[in-house]
């Protein structure tokens, strides 16, 4: 019983202390929200991006072979397009891309180089392209069927 009363007293003191601190902080709080999400319109115009295609099929690939494909990127917008990063879904893929801003009406590229070493069967991989667009990320996909190095690919 004594322990319960002591616990209740400690709880009451803790609650009133926190309540008093909150009231004192309340007068100094700013009138704007603490966290705001910047929308694309508050940051000015955003770039637009268009790809010649979103998926490429390599067909049959001999195991150990490196294959590549270059996706064409167009800027149909009115502000320069900046590809800031390209992230592959797997360590077997190495991306390369246009590093300079792509002017309105201009073209660039995102290239994927796939290393089939140690792979077999159907492979479906992706790369995520990050740019100054809304939405900021775009998914490109490629696929291929890896066959034994001794097997013919065509």
Can you describe what's shown?
By secondary structure, the chain is α+β, with helices and mostly antiparallel strands. The chain has a domain at 50-147: Immunoglobulins (Immunoglobulin-like, Sandwich), CATH 2.60.40.10. It is built from 1 helix and 8 strands; from the N terminus they run H-E-E-E-E-E-E-E-E. It has one helix at 2-26, and strands at 50-51, 55-62, 66-74, 83-88, 93-97, 107-115, 121-131, 137-147. The strands form 2 sheets. The chain has a 4-stranded antiparallel beta sheet with strand order 1-3-6-5, with no helix packed on it. Strands 2-8-7-4 form a 4-stranded mixed beta sheet, with no helix packed on it. It is elongated. The termini are far apart. The model is unreliable at 10-42 (pLDDT under 50).
Major sheet characteristics:
4 strands, antiparallel
If you consult CATH, what is the topology of the domain at 50-147? Immunoglobulin-like
Shape: elongated
Give the full name of the CATH homologous superfamily of the domain at 50-147. Answer: Immunoglobulins
The helix content, as a percent range, equals 10-25%
Which architecture of the domain at 50-147 does the CATH hierarchy give at level 2? Sandwich
Counting DSSP E segments of at least 2 residues, the number of strands comes to: 8
Task: Give start-end ranges of low-pLDDT stretches.
Answer: 10-42
What is the H/E order?
HEEEEEEEE
Q: What structural class should be given to the helix and strand makeup?
A: alpha+beta
Task: Provide the residue-averaged pLDDT.
Answer: 81
Beta percentage is 35-45%
How many whole angstroms does the radius of gyration measure? 28 Å
By CATH reckoning, the class of the domain at 50-147 would read Mainly Beta
């Amino acid at each position: 019983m004594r322990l319960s009363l002591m616990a209740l007293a400690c709880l009451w003191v803790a609650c009133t202390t926190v309540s008093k601190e909150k009231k004192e902080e309340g007068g100094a709080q700013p009138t704007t929200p603490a966290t705001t999400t910047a929308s694309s319109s508050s940051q000015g115009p955003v770039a637009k991006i268009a790809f010649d295609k979103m998926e490429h099929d390599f067909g049959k690939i001999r195991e150990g072979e490196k294959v590549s494909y270059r996706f064409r990127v167009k800027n149909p917008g009115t502000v320069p397009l900046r590809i800031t990063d390209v992230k592959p879904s797997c360590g077997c893929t190495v991306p390369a891309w246009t590093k300079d801003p792509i002017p309105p009406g201009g073209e660039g590229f995102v290239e994927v180089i796939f290393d089939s070493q140690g792979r077999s069967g159907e492979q479906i991989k992706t790369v995520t392209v990050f740019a100054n667009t809304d939405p900021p990320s775009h998914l490109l996909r490629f696929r291929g069927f890896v066959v034994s190095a001794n097997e013919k690919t065509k």
